[in-house]
Amino acid sequence: MSEEVKSKKKVLVIGWDSADWKVIDPLIQQGKMPALKGLIERGVYGKIQTLDPPLSPMLWTSIATGFRADKHGIGGFIEPNPDGTGLRPVTTTSRKVKAIWNILHHHDYKSNVVAWWPSNPAEPINGVMVSNLFHTATKPFGEEWEVLKGSVHPKELTDELKEWRVHPGEITLTMAMPFIPNLKDNKELRDARRSNGVAKVLANASSVHAVSTNLIRTTEWDFMAVYHDALDHFSHLAMKFHPPRRPEIDEQEFEDYQHVVESGYRFHDMMLERTLELVDEDTTIVILSDHGFHSDHQRPLYIPKEPSGPAVEHSPYGIFVMAGPGIRSGGQRISGASVLDVTPTLLAHMDIPIGEDMEGKVLHAVFDGQKEVKSIPSWELVQGDFGMHDPDLQEDPWEAMEAMQQLVELGYIEEIGEDKIEAVEKARRENRYYVARNLLNGKKWDEAITILEHIFEESKITRYGQRLAFAYLSTNRLMKCRNLINELRELEKEASSLRKTEAKNRDPKDPFGNSEYEEPMYLELVEGLLNLKINRPKKALPILERIQKKNPYNFQVALQIGRIHNMRKNYKLSENQYIRALAIDDRNAYAHHGLGLSFLRRNMLEQAVDEFFAAIEENFYMPNVHYHLGEAFFRAEYFEESEQAFQVAIRLSPGMTKAHKWLVTIYNEKLKQPEKAAEHEHFLANNIRGNVHILTALPGSGYQHLLQLLDENEVPVYTTRSEDANKRFVSSKVRKLGRSSDWMRDQQGKLLYIPPQFLSQLPPTFNYKVIFLRRDIAETVSLGAKNETLSVRKLNIAQKNVLKIDSWLQAQPGIDLMILDYEEFEKKPKEVVNLVKGFVV
Amino acid sequence: MKKKQSYTITPQGSLGLLALGDVGVRLWREAREKSKSESDNEKKQQDERRGKK
């Protein structure tokens, strides 16, 4: 046996879709999940953050690859058949990157993969793969139930493994009664949709477990990944009946279904107990979920009438447990895990290089001692055998579909039925929407905007437009955001009458039916945030309060209202909001920070310090929290602690002038260390001199027109005495910025035009607010041209200048930025002027 | 060493058997088949007795 083989670490990953600590914790306390409790005590545990949108195929692929959807290629639940005749469940051939089992195959590891989503058709790995479509019953009980072709690798195992499939028709009353005890005496209940659903889910879970226990026992393996969707399905079926009963819930239905979720979790613990009996002590066990599931007051009352609408019941944090050799023991909690971190962490644990292009990180906190992590630039660049399907089988189904359509248009093949094409088209758009949301979640704004602009333009579906408005807001395209909000409002008006009719027809006894959705007022939220961004908290507040009234458990809304109250010095009100936010997410650093601030401003110093520490525990890298902690300690006369906190704030944000000022005071007046005070005095004297407002734009892009209008509307603008309109706003001093910037001190509060080529010469001694006026480059150059021919040289220069602006902006941490499009300014000059006023004043 | 547990396997099965995985499913199906064949035999014998009378 080679050295490499000897040192292989054995790993078993068990996926429990939707598992949530809020359900598990009380069950563990009551002794109802002993196997999981024992595993936690042997290792580490914590929350795992999901990605948006919280859709299982996308998330489990991120878990198995370390990539987001734009890279791994799995968006939603369905994709078109390659022949274009309809849709099918998403397949492995659509995955664009290697999964962990492919990388392990390359290293000669034997892997078993059971029911992972998606894993059909099964990949030809070194080991066994049983796909997620293997165990779905397609025939009534008693009839021959064939195995789906391609769902088992190696296919020779098909006959042996198919015996372990449990048909829903096999589930007996004895098995189902722990979930629905009233089944015993109520024949009608046995035929109910939910009761049949429970039998189906239980049969599927039992099939997956029987196959996986069989493979654990009868095959040699180094890595095994088993996925259970049952908790997600039990929860969608019956979380609304999970105790405590809410007033909206029918009493009889509550009686009938209140045990479904608890029994589902307990059954998973029983399966876990058996699994742990079968594996040896050298096996590292990982149990995780892809997202959580709201089980408390945050349970939604309505399910959106849209594709993947039930995902609104998902919560942003799932579970993560890891135990075994090399893993810290003692049940310590770890924080900061994301679903993207699973593959890098497992590879690091198995001493296999991680891909530097993977979007997750190694969770060092899980390891017992220092872990040396090897890496390579990308596994995607490595050639060789990875146990993947033949490249001919790997295809982008959307491309295949488009190719089909072209052939139809050219007359090579027959027209596909209208309905099917429409269905495929809708699914294609929806998948792109999921990828765009995933990109927004990863702050890949530009790529997300490109997709959203396209699908919104194509369909005018308001959901797409709302996300696009948020993307515009997040990238400071404020005017675009404002215009889109207006357009969406018009679309909403048209849709609202339709919704009212639907609401009237809704069965009052079934508030959870697929009916009108109490829209989370995403658009309103974007509008509220837009007003906050342009310094109009007074205008933002009623919008946000309106959302909160309809949607009391929206975390973001509570956080923003709290922020407004803090800004307006209504500290008692802000305290209420932050407490509300923490009731929704008790581990949120921003909410702890805001609450601490409301205490600090009322001189409740002890409480303030507690909250700042709570924020730091969740996210250390927030300079403002350390700054406010320093302030609280100072007021409480703990000067050494105060000094330390300000020092940390400066380490995290070196240009934080306020922190330097505090340190001058502390060293001079309290700690009597004038030499240290001098360092910070020196910094202040040489560094930050004030706030300057900048407008940058390409010459010829119409910035003079904007400045003119701003000047006329009482926005302080820097002007020269020149009579020439073109020169009136351009200071000759700007050209000498590299040599002297003293004159800028006198221009504070005024809007100053800086051409792109001089941005890099702006001294780092001021805080900047920047407005970037953009215009189509070709248009800009042609306006300045003497004849109709566009000069390539001038186009290149303009292109370079735009790049200069972009790169300068990227290098400015924490800069206040507003991006304006000239086209928007031309259409609505007054609105733009008002926006700019709000921004700079 | 773990104490051996003993199970009574009924034709109706149980969640505990399902949680035992492949082994549990096999044992339960065997018990179900055995019970079915016993019941079929009993029925056959009853029919035969009725036939004699």
Outline the structure in words.
Among the domains of chain A are: 12-381, Alkaline Phosphatase, subunit A (3-Layer(aba) Sandwich), CATH 3.40.720; 690-734 and 744-840, P-loop containing nucleotide triphosphate hydrolases (Rossmann fold, 3-Layer(aba) Sandwich). Chain A is an alpha/beta fold. Mean pLDDT of chain A is 88; it is low at 1-5 and 509-518. In chain A, the strands form 5 sheets. Chain A has a 9-stranded mixed beta sheet, sandwiched between helices. Chain A is globular, with a radius of gyration of 30 Å. Chain A has 34 helices and 19 strands. With 53 residues, chain B is mainly α. Chain B has a domain at 16-52. Helix content of chain B is 68%, strand content 0%. Chain B is rod-shaped, with a radius of gyration of 16 Å. The chains are: A alpha/beta (841), B mainly alpha (53). The interface between A and B is medium-sized, with 25 and 15 residues.
